[in-house]
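Kindly go through one protein, given below as sequence and tokens. The question is how this chain folds according to its tokens.

***
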Amino acid sequence: MAYASHILNQSKKLRNAPNFLWHEHAIFIRWFSNHAQPSIGKRDDTWKIRRHCYVPSETETVSRSATSGTMSMFGIQKRNISIMTMKVRDPSAGLAHNQGFSCSQVYTRRGFSSDSGLPPHQEIGMPSLSPTMSEGNIARWLKKEGDKVSPGEVLCEVETDKATVELECMEDGYLAKILLGDGSKEIKVGEVIAITVEDEEDIAKFKDYKPSTSGAGTVEESPAPPKKEVVEQPVSSPEPKTSKPTAAPPAEDRIFSSPLARKLAEEHDVPLSSIKGTGLDGRIVKADIEDYLASRGKEVSATASKAKSATPAALDYADIPHSQIRKITASRLLFSKQTIPHYYLTVDTCVDKLMDLRNQLNSLQEASGGKRISVNDLVIKAAALALRKVPQCNSSWTDEYIRQYHNVNINVAVQTDNGLFVPVIRDADKKGLSRIGEEVKQLAQKAKENSLKPEDFEGGTFTVSNLGGPFGIKQFCAIINPPQSGILAVGSAEKRVVPSSGPEQFEFASFMPVTLSCDHRVIDGAIGAEWLKAFKGYIENPESMLL
């Protein structure tokens, strides 16, 4: 009966719980196990619950007390219980709308760590500055620890897979800690490289800051030795270590030798078993040891002379570390050759009319103070117009569909000391030759200075690579730049003897070979041939490009 009345009293108290919660100065009690760590902070803060949010209050305090003994609650035994109480105003907003309330949701300042006691801070991770970037290098820091930073200021220069890009600050604050300094390589995207704080006095607190594997940083402190549970195990008596007696060699294997011969053999590390004795009953004597040493010396000298004569001269070399651009270029080209079914189409184009038009245009450019137009500029224009005429070649492959682009953006291969760059000429089919020439020169200069930005090389739909003009290469096959489906390799122009209009009459003409590399998943052979026909038409009749 006493137990039943106890349960009845408790149920009556529960019926009055709404009145208890609606009280103006109601006390809200939460229970935490001794192992839980509420993230309110290591110091007692003040909180006030309002509509849908929790705001610190100067008048309402949070108090905590801990008991290490045993506490009974509704007949249930609780061990190592800590109690947190807080005064609550307007519980209808705080509890009715936030039924999932927990202490871990109370304080959500970015970078706040209740375990390490660090002030609010921001962890700056290695950004993804291009679609293909998985890791990057830090070229140099332009800010030092302790410097004030503002939005738009450059923190450091990051070397991506294609260029060196400036990393700008997004918020006001102070650079508290640089975790990865100048020259740091192979930093994964998202890995923390620096810490910023809002207040200058918080900088010193991050002197020994190191990010943890979970992403939150901690300051190195001398950790308390963990408590280890002692598990009783049956004690087994150790087996006594006994040395096993070495079996005596059989009598027939015993080697007989004189004391002087044995001493001489020990001094020269000669195994007696390899010597045949000449003494009484096969006994090894001193003369046997000396003969063995003399024969062994001849063999060693002969072997050494042979090895010396057979050893080739050592190669002289130097190991050059891979740059980030070189590694990414290698991986992308390898991926292209392994996954894209290449095929190649080559055609010779007569460039006599093209050269005449170029000379006329350059005369006009020089008269007006403009820059000269190169053969490569005319090739880019002709390729762009051919792509507009045969749009199937201005496409890329995906597993679900073939994406055909409406913009004709031509990448131009540029070789530099830092590696191969492919800056892009956007909407090349809509631009004039002088505009194309100016953009190519500007982008090539930026590539050589390693100052290209992502927008300078991303978004291309087709690539042109010219090794003929600058290097005199007659003909070559280029590797497709994924996700594109075609690349044009341009060789050098050369004069050839061709038949003339009359019988047995000949004349000279200049021909430039070009090779189109195609992705057979996107461009069928006939489509590739149609594109080359259109390209050849523009090259051999360049006036049509001006229409």
